[in-house]
Specification:
This protein is mainly α. The chain is 81% helix and 0% strand.
């Protein structure tokens, strides 16, 4: 069965269902996605500090500990 053989109201209903299901999944996953997004942004903000410490000759292990300690 191809998409062209499905009647138009059924296609609209399918699209609407997929949209509502996607929004519901995002709302339910908010408790996981918000901290994950915050962690990714924070990690990107700390990259320049890590590079600067690496140029100063600090080892990677100490560099990571120092950045995470902040």
């Amino acid at each position: 069965m191809t998409l062209k053989t499905i009647p138009v109201p059924a296609r609209i209903a399918l699209c609407l269902f997929c949209f509502i299901a996607s929004v519901a999944i995002l709302i339910l996953a908010k408790d996981v996605l918000v901290p994950l997004a915050f962690a990714l942004v924070l990690a990107m903000l700390l990259i320049p500090l890590g590079r600067k410490l690496e140029k100063l000759g600090m080892g990677r292990g100490l560099q990571h500990l120092y950045v995470y300690w902040l």
